[in-house]
Amino acid sequence: MIQLYIPLNFLGVIYREIKQALTDLDKMFTLMERDQEVGDAPDARPLLLKSPPSVRFDHVNFAYEPARPILHDVSFEIPAGQTVAVVGPSGSGKSTLGRLLYRFYDVQEGRILVNGHDVKSLTQDSLRRSIGIVPQDTVLFNDTVAYNIGYGRTGATQAEIEQAARAARIHDFITNTPLGYGTMVGERGLKLSGGEKQRVAIARTLLKDPPILVFDEATSALDSANERAIQAELTAVGQGKTVLVIAHRLSTVVNAHEILVMDAGRIIERGTHVQLLNANGRYAQMWRLQQHEA
Ligand code: ATP
Question: Ligand 1 centroid vs 179 CA: distance in angstroms?
Answer without folding.
Answer: 39
